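for the record, two folds in this file. i put them one after another cuz i was lazy. first one right below, seq on top, structure tokens after. the second one comes after a little note so u can tell where it starts
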Amino acid sequence: MTGTLTFLGSGTSTGVPMIGCGCGVCRSADPKDQRTRSSAWIQSAGLSALIDSSTDLRAQALRVGMRALDAVFYTHHHADHVHGIDDLRSFSLFAGKKLPCYGPAPSLERIREMFAYIFNGKDAPGGGKPLLELVAIEGPVTVNGLTVTPIPARHGDALVFGYRMGRLAYLTDCSSIPPASIRHLEGVETLILGAMKAPRHATHFTLEQALETITLIKPRRAYLTHLNHAVSHAAVSAALPEGVALAWDGLTVEF
């Protein structure tokens, strides 16, 4: 089965431009330097699914013309990846049923606590909340014919999931990928990896670490996402090795 992945957002938790910052990237006129919070839209025959419901989900969904969803795959529970959860209401409303949300059990439990009004089993006056079902997974799940495999990684001390679909894999917020997960990435042709331009970072790959990981996994092509405001699209792109590119909001890749 073939499909596409669209980068709805390619920025870090602050987005770019960052509020209050006057750096060159935040003042850039290059549209590829304007990044909403990271999330992705998966489309294949019979399937429309999100990876994360970013803080900017409403604007992202309207921009790409997203009209329906069959599932959401959460990487983890941090605010920039889940705080668009209320905007899932429209999708469950028009579908008339609960929208399944998959992810690692610890993160889903945190989401259940953070958004208790959604999951408390009580009817909301006027129906003002999304209808969601949290589904903890440890292995592959098949939704409408597409098999999605969780890839465990570490985000500092936290467990997070990346996801593999066929020969494409998407891993955003991570600072290390254990050997068992590296083995699950063998044969990936398109690798999407988070990268921060910084001397070091406690919970994210730096640009240099991301490039080292790409060299280890050996995909045919790789895209870097979850980019901070130190990343000038033009300047950093010019220095990347062959086969590696920066993602930008709205970029679509096939798998």
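(here's the note) second protein begins now
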Amino acid sequence: MLDFTSIFSQLVGPFFILFIFVIVISFIKSAKFKGVIGEFLVNTNSKLRLDSSIYKRLSNVTLCLEDVSTTQIDHIVLSRFGIFVIETKNMQGWIFGSEHQKRWTQSIYGKKNSFQNPLLQNYRHIKALEEILGIDRGLYSIVTFVGESEFKTDMPSNVFNGGGYIGYIESFKEEIFSESELTKMLDVLESKSLVRGRATDKKHIDSLKSTSFSSKNTYKQDQKIICSRCSSVMVERVNKRSGEHFLGCSSYPRCRHTEKL
């Protein structure tokens, strides 16, 4: 008599391992995982190379503004020489863009993807810090790309590939803030930052969704739209047949979720 239990267990074992493997690979390729890795690399690089007695670092800071919206900042470096607001991008391939373009382009494996100009994205972070800290000076925007990417156009002086931003931060020598001002600002940021965790991430995503469309359903370029299915960033695309603009998931073709503009 056949032992079906034994046969079933022998069949299920390999399929279960394959299932787990697919799940792990999908997660590693996800935009969320790439974002986490990018922030980790920048945080580690800053910790190792910036003098902790001069530069104070905060990472993954979510702030609630007066209009109840939230903004999430990858990294903030505070010093007497200025406050540096760092936006990280973990991307591969060729990167095309300029300072004032609303959209930049990633070219990889023969495909082109449009994404929001990270300098414009970081502008909202700068304005949020001005509001929270009550200052209008000494705030500097930095964008750094991690991953195997290559700039194919001339980039602004505050956009870097890898750890070049460290030298940029250290090049500022003129003192703008006193030690007491720095201590006060650090206390304000730590007290007004939302507690890290899923609840805060959900609140931020809900805030983005509620503020990313105006009453006329017009897409705001200074906001991130998060895919409701896989939590990747939504990007603006064009229907080749109709010419209609719409939002498509950046994880396409793995995720085919779309939204109307």
